[in-house]
């Protein structure tokens, strides 16, 4: 651990900054975990794309199809890469699971390997009549059990979205909860930023809204989704560039660079495959020269026609 539990919030304020990315998990053709490919990707993302930190083993990383042992190995690979190269990066390990023992096992493992943060999404609840009490006690229990900075994650896949008031209460009463990835409508996270932004680092995965959130809400971290990996190359880091310019107060210059990425955004939108986007995004990574690989069930891989469409849109998007 790089800090004491009592220092978690100060550590996050100092280090949970910049452009972070959610990592996809590469699998080999036999669907085993490709740790070598993941390490090569991490080296490229850290050294060439200058990504500041990584959200590892989340929905983007297909955690739902992985064993606990595989999730631990993925986390170990990420932490070693983030701490092992000349340029350092932050490591936030997803420990989300419906089974509390699994969450705690993964959380303690993350502590043991030197992760910076753990992130846990709010649980799916069945027949719940008092969501706020259940969710508050869930995060309180986790915070009591783990000596590491805890990041909440609220998204509609749980069957509900945590209210801004609930998030603010958790931030006020549980000091080791330092941030939230808030996959909620913009009015929710604007309200939460105003209610608890002095205690809780608030961020959303929406790159489309990211520029406005820097300028209007003063956000300091993009936390996090896959666009930093899909929109950029070693010689074309426009997402990072417009973020730095916006933070420096050069708003119009930042806006022009942000808008110049519209062809990339549109290409990804136009080539989006039916169902989940994982297979499309992994193939896009391959077109960028990175390691993608197949997806695991219940996700499905691309057809030949889908690959052809993605390849054509990629060729028109203007990434250099």
Description:
There is one protein chain. By secondary structure, the chain is of the alpha/beta class. It has a single domain (5-250), classed as TIM Barrel (Alpha-Beta Barrel). The protein has 14 helices and eight strands. The protein has helices spanning 8-15, 35-47, 68-84, 100-113, 131-145, 164-173, 186-196, 210-217, 227-230, 238-247, 251-260, 262-270, 278-287, 304-316, and strands at 18-22, 53-56, 90-94, 117-121, 149-154, 177-182, 201-203, 221-225. Strands 7-6-5-4-3-2-1-8 form an eight-stranded parallel β-sheet, with helices on both faces. Strand 1 (18-22), helix 2 (35-47) and strand 2 (53-56) form a beta-alpha-beta unit. Helix 2 (35-47) runs parallel beside helix 3, helix 6 packs parallel to helix 7 (186-196) and helix 10 (238-247) runs antiparallel to helix 11. The chain is globular and about 50 Å long. The chain starts with 7 loop residues before the first helix and ends with a helix. The mean pLDDT is 96.
Give a concise summary.
With 320 residues, the chain is of the alpha/beta class. The chain has helices at 8-15, 35-47, 68-84, 100-113, 131-145, 164-173, 186-196, 210-217, 227-230, 238-247, 251-260, 262-270, 278-287, 304-316, and strands at residues 18-22, 53-56, 90-94, 117-121, 149-154, 177-182, 201-203, 221-225. The protein has one domain (5-250): Aldolase class I (TIM Barrel, Alpha-Beta Barrel).
């Amino acid at each position: 651990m790089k800090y004491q539990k009592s220092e978690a919030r100060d550590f996050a304020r100092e280090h949970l900054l910049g452009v972070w990315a959610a990592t996809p998990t590469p699998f080999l053709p036999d669907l085993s975990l490709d740790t070598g490919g993941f390490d090569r990707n991490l080296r490229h993302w850290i050294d060439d794309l200058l990504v500041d930190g990584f959200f590892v083993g989340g929905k983007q990383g297909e955690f739902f199809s992985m064993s606990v042992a595989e999730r631990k190995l993925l986390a170990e690979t990420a932490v070693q890469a983030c701490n092992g190269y000349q340029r350092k990066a932050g490591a936030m390990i997803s420990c989300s699971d419906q089974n509390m023992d699994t969450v705690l096992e993964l959380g303690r493992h993350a502590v043991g390997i030197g992760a910076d943060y753990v992130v846990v999404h709010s649980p799916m609840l069945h027949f719940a009549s008092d969501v706020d009490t259940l969710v508050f006690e869930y995060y309180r229990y986790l915070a009591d059990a783990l000596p590491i900075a805890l990041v909440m994650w609220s998204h509609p896949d749980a069957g509900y979205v945590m209210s801004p008031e609930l998030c603010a209460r958790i931030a006020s009463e549980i000091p080791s909860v330092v941030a939230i990835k808030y996959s909620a409508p913009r009015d929710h996270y604007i309200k939460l930023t105003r209610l608890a932004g002095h205690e809780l680092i608030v961020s959303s995965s929406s790159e489309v809204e990211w520029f406005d959130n820097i300028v209007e809400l003063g956000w300091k971290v993009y936390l996090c989704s896959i666009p930093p990996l899909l929109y950029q190359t070693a010689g074309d880091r426009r997402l990072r560039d417009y973020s730095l310019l916006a933070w420096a107060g050069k708003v119009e210059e930042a806006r022009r660079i942000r808008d110049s990425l519209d062809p990339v955004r549109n290409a990804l939108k136009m080539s989006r495959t039916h169902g989940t986007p994982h297979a499309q995004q992994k193939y896009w990574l391959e077109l960028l020269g990175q390691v993608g690989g197949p997806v695991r069930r219940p996700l499905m891989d691309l057809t030949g026609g889908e690959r052809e469409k993605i390849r054509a849109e990629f060729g028109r998007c203007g990434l250099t």
